[in-house]
Prior knowledge:
Blueprint lengths: L8 H12 L15 H18 L12 H9 L2 H10 L20 H19 L1
Amino acid sequence: MRTNTIFTPAVIAMIIMAASCSDDRSGLDVPKFEAADLQQGRATWMQVCRNCHLMGVAGAPAISDYSAWEPRIAGARASLYANAIQGIGDKGGWRMPPRGGNDNLSDDDVRRAVDFMIASVEQLRD
Length: 126
């Protein structure tokens, strides 16, 4: 008897998170910055955001893909903050879950991670 497997967003998220626990084989040196806020943002990004944004998983713009980030960076940063805090989509089909799927992050944690990602995208472009 054959059964069909349905991959729900929760199952996909678990697969992504399990894969992100392995060694980083992207070959990308994730930038480091001296500013305390960017260091804190990097810590959050490494724990949460990189799961999708390091390699561009599930349609997330990869940190090294400046062309995907250029229109986002050109827009209002408040919009990026709101999308990261509130998520993009809805419970039936999140493209990006609120707070990257970590409800324990404060708004400031998320804003710092966004700031880190923008600074990294710009640095990696050069």
